[in-house]
Amino acid sequence: MSLRLGDIAPNFTIDSTAGEINFHDWAGDSWVFFFSHPADFTPVCTTEMGRTAKLAQEFAARNVKPLGLSTDTVEEHVKWIKDINDTQGSDVQFPILADANHKVAELYDMIHPGESETATVRSVFIIDPNKKIRLTLTYPMAVGRNFDEILRVIDALQTADKNRCALPADWQKGDDVIIPPSISNEEAKGLFPNGWNEIRPYLRTTKL
Hints:
This protein is 32% helix and 22% strand. By secondary structure, the protein is of the alpha+beta class. It has 2 domains: 13-145, 3-Layer(aba) Sandwich (Glutaredoxin), CATH 3.40.30.10; 164-206, 2-Layer Sandwich (Antioxidant, Horf6, Chain A, domain 2). Helix 2 (43-54) packs across helix 4 (74-88).
C-alpha cells in the first residue's frame, strides 16, 4: 500500500508493550510520531529508542505521542526495553508494537526488499490529530534518524497550521516565516499585522 501525504493513516488493532492498541483510538486528539525498526536488540535501533524516551517531555510539549514498531514479539520487546534503558540511560514508556506477522509493516509499506525481505526499514510517519499523514521519512537500515529534524518539522507543521504560513529552508522556531502566494496582500494585512518584507511579489517574509 502506497501512502501519500494527506492520506488518512490506516487504522489497525495490534498487541504492544502497553497492551492491545487500536491505533486511531490510542492516538486520540494528539499528533503521532510513528516509527519502525528493523529488529529488537540491534545497535542503531537501541540508540533511537533511548533517544525517543529521553525526548519524552519535548514530544509531550508538542502534543505528540511516540509509537514504535518492530517485527518481534511483546516478550522480546520487554527484554529489549530493559537493555535500552540500561545502555542508554533512558526510561522507555511509549508503546512498541509487536508486528511479528508484518501486519502493520505491510499496511504502511515499511518493508523494502532492496534492504531486507523480512525487516522493516526506518520509516517515519508524522500524523496529525485528524489522522492525516503530514510527513514521511525513510531511512536505510544502517543509518539512525535525526531527532532534531523530527522535532523541527513537527514545530514547522504546527506553526504552518496555526498561522497559515509557509516555512523557509532550515527554519527554526522564532525565524521569519513566508506568506504563501495564495494569500493576497489585502488578506495578509489582517493575518500578519507586523507587516512583511516583499523580496519578490511571490516571496514575502514576516515575523509572527
